Amino acid sequence: MQIVKMDNQGRGITYYNDKIVFVNNALPNEDVDIFITLDKKKYSVANVTKYNKISNSRIEPKCKYYGICGGCQLEHISYSDEVDYKTNYLNDIFKSVGVKIERIVTNNDYNYRDKITLKVNKCIGFNKINSNDIISIDKCMIADNLINDKIKYLKLIDTTNIKEVIIKSFDNKSMLVLNGSNPVDISKISKYFDTIYINNKLVSGYRIIATINNIKYYIAPNGFFQVNISIAEKMFKYIKEICVNKKAERVLDLYCGCGSISLFIADSVKYVHGIELNEQSIRDANDNKELNNITNVDFSCDTTDNIKDINSFDTIIVDPPRSGLSKKVINKLLSSKIKNIIYVSCDPITLKRDLTYLKDKYNIESITTFDMFPNTYHVENVATLTRISS
User: Fold this and answer.
1) What is the helix (H) or strand (E) element at residue 273, kind and residue range?
2) Count of CB atoms within 10 A of residue 18's CB?
3) Predicted pLDDT of residue 115
4) Which of 13, 55, 139, 265 is the most buried (most CB within 10 A)?
């Protein structure tokens, strides 16, 4: 089978019996024998059983679990080829809204993750590709060095009542999170981690802090925080730069989480109001506000569908989950007088969908990509929109 191109999940594409077939770990111009693992009415998914012709772009993966663990999809190409691939597939997605990505912001392609989540079932590790089976690991190539140093101590844990293990690393401090049922004995491992949580309860050590450009953030055990702090800093600085260039004064930050962006831009605007549905995230946001002694930011716990006084703001930042913006939020934006929208997205497909709606009233000025997840097909995009003058 001849691989003709790659899809936006890093899979090769070929055709069999006039049906598209997505082939894992296959590159354009390769000739492969395949085995169908999933056969649907409109498409199939396959694995390679034999490489008859290998692409010049193929390289040897550094990770010994690559092709077994389902975490990474692009380690069989160089990072420069990966950036080219992401540029091409993103521009293919966004061409329907009439914009090209300006650039892809990059940094380290290994040892960048400050969090890993491991599953537990007789062993501790990652899920195998397209499976609930678990492969035991002793190192993750994309996790930071401190996390990898701590993995070896997990063998000291009695995992009888544990379903999930999370390790986080910020500012050279480590956090262990054990999720499952009580009791859990941590006596053999407590000295190896700066803080340990069991089911969201602090049982050892103290709260750890992440620092991004002098702004400090308490790290919650099961809360969201960017997994690539070096790229997050570049992205936050870029968003602040947009606010400065647009002369933003009053900013509404939807899906604000623990207040990461709100607090980062606070010194460049008059006022920020963050809205987040998750109660724990709002508590963390207020703690972070106090930690940094910032007084021109407020947070409220509410659904983003209930935006009030939207026209009292000149700029809005949205950072929704993969599902994108709800129709209620989009309709409120379209009927508002908001001048500027800064749309942070982890899913280019839903971003394109929402931009298609918004471009009736907003000019899409630019999309800049931040490679938050090297060696995977995932990226973070920041779109800048300005209201069209009536």
Assistant:
1) strand 271-276
2) 5
3) 97
4) 265
Inter-residue contact 276 to 301 (CB < 8 Å): yes
Q: Which residues, 6 or more positions from 321, have their beta carbon under 8 angstroms from its beta carbon? A: 255, 346
**Mean pLDDT, the chain, integer:** 95
What single-letter DSSP state applies at residue 152?
Answer: G
Taking every pair of Cα atoms in the chain, the longest distance, rounded to a whole number of angstroms, is 67
DSSP 71-87: S-S-TTB-HHHHHHHHH
Is residue 63 helix, strand or coil? Answer: coil
Which residues on neighbouring strands pair with residue 134, listed in sequence order? 127
What is the signed CA dihedral for 23, 26, 29, 35, rounded to 10 degrees?
A: -50
Q: Side chain identity at 231, as an amino acid letter?
A: I
pLDDT band at 390 (very low <50, low <70, confident <90, very high): low
Q: Which residues of 176-201 are buried (b: 16+ CB within 10 A; e: fewer)?
A: bbbbeeeebebeebeebbbbbbbeee
The pLDDT value recorded for residue 122 is 84
Count how many residues are written for the chain: 390
Cα angle value 213/216/219 (rounded, 5°) = 125
Nearest residue to 294 (alpha-carbon basis) of 325, 271, 327, 326: 271
Query: Residue 183: what pLDDT?
Result: 87
- pLDDT at residue 70, as a whole number: 86
Domains of the chain plus CATH, in order, are 5-58 (2.40.50.140), 88-108+228-387 (3.40.50.150), 115-212 (2.40.50.1070)
DSSP-derived letter for residue 157 is: S
Task: Please report, as a single letter, which amino acid is at residue 79.
Answer: Y
pLDDT digits (tens, 9 = 90+) for 274-332: 999 999 999 999 999 999 999 999 999 999 888 888 999 999 999 999 999 999 999 99
